[in-house]
Specification:
The structure is a single chain. With 152 residues, the chain is mainly alpha-helical. It has 2 domains: 76 residues, no CATH class; 67 residues. It is built from 6 helices and no strands. Helix 2 packs across helix 3 and helix 5 crosses helix 6. The termini are close together. The model has no long low-confidence stretch (mean pLDDT 83).
Length: 152
């Protein structure tokens, strides 16, 4: 038996989150001249640890950005809010999914945040193609997992 749950409709929280994402993307571009894509930020941050092409000379802001992503849910908890995990507990499936996302970001020269938020805002044709591709892949994946495999 498959249990289907619906995501809560949260227009104000979603609007606030979208505004914060937009503001952070503008700040990264204005302050550092970089695209606020998590794949590129992570790769640049790791450039100081793992030898990568063009090791990040500007890794401090990248680490601060990544630490901010980790600190946000902790701050919500500290101020009495709650954080609900909606990610499946299937670790092998999550590992495979993570590897596929990593390969996709390498092949697509960026991730959903870089192409979807920043690239589309700059009217990049390459980003439009990337967004169309990963959205189509997402639709197919959800269909296959839910309707062909019966859910995970």
């Amino acid at each position: 038996m498959q249990i289907v749950t619906q995501t809560a409709f949260t227009p104000w929280a979603s609007l606030g989150g979208g505004i914060l994402i937009g503001v952070s993307a503008v700040m990264v571009m204005a302050l550092f001249g970089r695209i606020a894509g998590i794949a590129g930020i992570s790769q640049g941050a790791l450039g100081g640890i793992v030898p990568l092409q063009g090791a990040a000379r500007d890794r401090d802001w990248r680490w601060a950005f990544l630490l901010g992503l980790l600190a946000a849910p902790l701050a919500i908890l500290a101020f009495g809010g709650s954080v609900v995990q909606t990610v499946p507990q299937n670790l092998p499936a999550m590992g495979i999914a993570g590897l596929l996302v990593g390969v996709g970001t390498a092949l697509g020269s960026g991730c959903t945040s870089g192409h979807g938020v920043c690239g589309l805002a700059r009217l990049s044709g390459r980003s439009l193609a990337a967004v169309a591709t990963f959205m189509a892949a997402g639709f197919v994946t959800v269909f296959v997992i839910r309707h062909v495999m019966g859910g995970l």
